[in-house]
């Protein structure tokens, strides 16, 4: 009976008669950003050496060959040949001290007409950085790029000039490059624009002018350590320029006074979230105080008399050790998520500094502390003085469960002294990244002991992703 | 081609808020399941559309065991009513996304079972489950040598010595 035959065939050793698309699916999950340590080849290459069928499927699976990390000239050559004529993604995004050679880059860029995504992170190249950058920019200027959709170019050379960009771009991410405005005007399809530079070359007027040419823009992130002084406000009473209606994320990093002027001058769509990051981490004391005053001036406008900020999170900068980021939602702008980020060192040597600036958060009711290793006992006490009305404290740590527990224990220890009005103490579970079962039990025991000793009406929620414990 | 047998209405009570389907596994187990639950399967959805066209009720014979079928139903029940991007035929194929924690535990089964689930998911056209299984299988062989892969998945080496050591097998230089 045919049905029975079919059934029996289904019970044969399952992998041997797997459909081709299922095997391709499995192979694609083996793609890694780095080559195999043993062979220097892509991590999925061994599947092409398992049997004839797997080799045929692996060689024929275009998805495996169209994303080409530029690890070596031979590999690049093979991948370019296998992927022809499909659009390709060229990728150089090393997370170790791997070096890109000009020969490989040159060969890869010779295929620019079929490059869909180009990612070149040239920041940590020990030698030839200038040559590599020049090669990239000259190729982009000289070759047609009819299908390029994404360009990511991260360099350390502040004099890198991009004078021509593909009109087909949908996402552009450049670091430390200079682009004339006319270059951006050509990118009508651009949806994501991320620019970071040691110097922002656009004035506000120019930026708005550029935005008018990018009607599809959804994400605009501009970061600069130095904002030019000719940033100016539009005349009072006049119609404020609108940024594209599709914009859903606006992030500006720079000196506080200029950024505040930009924000005041723009009519940000109500559906757009905005993040202002005031780069005062390396700034002078007086500039930080001026920034705090400017923030109060901007946000402390509330007819109901509510404090300027309701919620704040603080976490350590992942890239700048010792620098703390503050993000707060403003009560003055209901219905919209306007965030403010600040960076400055928080430690013993800047306590006076922090106390001077923190009063902007004096009415804070909810505080989230992320990655708590910097929350020393002194800092907990300092925060408690600044935020006497705090009633919800959320503690999160991404990886280090012991730091989290330490901070939590400190918070419990000081609860009566430090947070007299504390009603709830939440510790959500993203904090604990899958500790082993034994560790989890031991940690829980420590926590529960701490809670018992606290003798307070603390509501404690522990969410370990797969289970929630409530006391 | 799926195999369909006619059943009478008493076998499949079907006038509730969500109609019931009768699925018959290869070991002849009859499993009644709400149509809603199985709507994630494009194969089942197409069968149901076919029923509506002929206004006849059928059972659907499936070429895998009740043990496998029950696992698939468990998956579909868990995600009942949830939108999963991978199952949206109109959505662009998702890139690499983090594995869903529930899926990880659900697929913590032995090798043969995992392979049978992915095969059943492919047959039933449940893309999200195929994707999760594919990732789980990939994790099993990630970082392994060719010989270890053969051993783990029970694949026979059918290369001739020449083929095995051909230059193309060392294409990465």
Secondary-structure blueprint:
The complex is a heterodimer of chains A (471) and B (173).
Chain A: H1 2-10, H2 20-28, H3 52-60, H4 62-65, E1 67-69, H5 73-83, E2 88-92, H6 102-109, E3 115-121, H7 129-142, E4 150-154, E5 160-161, E6 171-175, E7 177-178, H8 181-185, E8 192-199, H9 204-212, E9 219-226, E10 249-254, H10 256-265, E11 273-278, H11 285-299, E12 309-316, E13 323-330, E14 338-345, H12 351-357, E15 366-370, H13 377-386, E16 392-396, H14 401-413, H15 415-418, E17 424-427, H16 437-454, E18 459-463, E19 468-470
Parallel strand pairs in A: 1-2, 2-3, 3-4, 4-6, 5-7, 6-8, 8-9, 9-10, 10-11, 11-14, 12-15, 15-16, 16-17, 17-18
Antiparallel strand pairs in A: 12-13, 13-14, 18-19
Helix pairs in contact in A: 5-6, 6-7, 14-16
Chain B: E1 3-6, E2 20-24, E3 30-34, H1 35-38, H2 42-54, E4 58-61, H3 66-78, H4 101-106, H5 111-124, H6 127-141, H7 146-153, H8 161-164
Parallel strand pairs in B: 2-4
Antiparallel strand pairs in B: 1-4, 2-3
Helix pairs in contact in B: 3-5, 5-6
What does it look like?
The complex is a heterodimer of chains A (471) and B (173). Chain A has 471 residues and is an alpha/beta fold. Chain A has a domain of 65 residues. Chain A contains 16 helices and 19 strands. In chain A, helix 5 packs parallel to helix 6 and helix 14 packs parallel to helix 16. The termini of chain A are far apart. The N terminus and C terminus of chain A are likely disordered. Chain B has a single domain, classed as Potassium Channel Kv1.1, Chain A. Chain B has eight helices and four strands. Chain B has a four-stranded mixed sheet with strand order 1-4-2-3. The radius of gyration of chain B is 20 Å and the shape is elongated. The N and C termini of chain B lie far apart (45 Å). Classes of the chains: A alpha/beta (471), B alpha+beta (173). At the A-B interface, helix 1, helix 2, helix 3 and helix 5 of A face helix 5, helix 6 and helix 7 of B.
